[in-house]
Amino acid sequence: MEEDLELVQQVRAGARQAYAGLVRRHQARVRGYCLGVLGNAADADDAAQEIFLKAYRGLAGFRGGARFSTWLCRIAINHCRDLLRKRAGRREESWDALIEAEGEGLEARTAVPPAGRLSEERRRQLYRLLAALPAGAREVLILREGQGLRYEEIAAVLGCSLDGVKARLKRARQAARERKEARDD
User: Fold this and answer.
1) Hey, which of 33, 74, 95, 165 would disulfide with 127, CB 3.0 to 4.6 Å?
2) Distance between CA 166 and CA 151 in Å, rounded?
3) CATH number for the domain including 153?
4) Mind listing the pLDDT tens digit for each residue in 67-105?
5) How far, in Å, CA of 53 to CA of 97, rounded?
6) Cα–Cα dist 163/14, whole Å
7) CA pair distance 18, 35, nearest whole angstrom
8) What is the domain range of residue 178?
9) Tally of domains within the chain
10) Cβ within 8 Å of residue 124, ≥6 positions away
11) Which backbone phi and psi does 37 adopt, to 5 degrees?
């Protein structure tokens, strides 16, 4: 945290190369989030680049009231939401096609890293399940389970109360369970 604030101060003082340090520290998490929400590796790469550009341009607006990672996550969420709205109605690459194309390397770059190594079939099931969830449910699950954010951080990122986060997570987990049970039948 302190390292992020120090790098932010360096960038504000004109040391643009310090921003590369911020990007290195947060790139995997931002790309992983984008991949989890967008479901397409190429879109995730593009989105991550755009998010870091937006963050750089908006760095003057970072007040330090929250952690830099929380602020950056908020930018990522808004950007991915915008992309999802724009793509609504268009057919996109499916998770199945993504898994086929990316193979074993996908697990290391996703927003939902497993506790241990998952089998190929379990990984496919996980991504099918995520893809079947509404965007809001997928978003809150990725933030909590994939990114490991605390409830307070999720509340700050999503702009809702702590109780709101708990309710959203409960509904998202319930929706995931229902979809899993429906597939198992």
Assistant:
1) 95
2) 7
3) 1.10.1740.10
4) 899 999 999 999 998 998 887 755 444 445 544 554 544
5) 29
6) 41
7) 26
8) 2-184
9) 1
10) 95, 96, 99
11) -85, -45
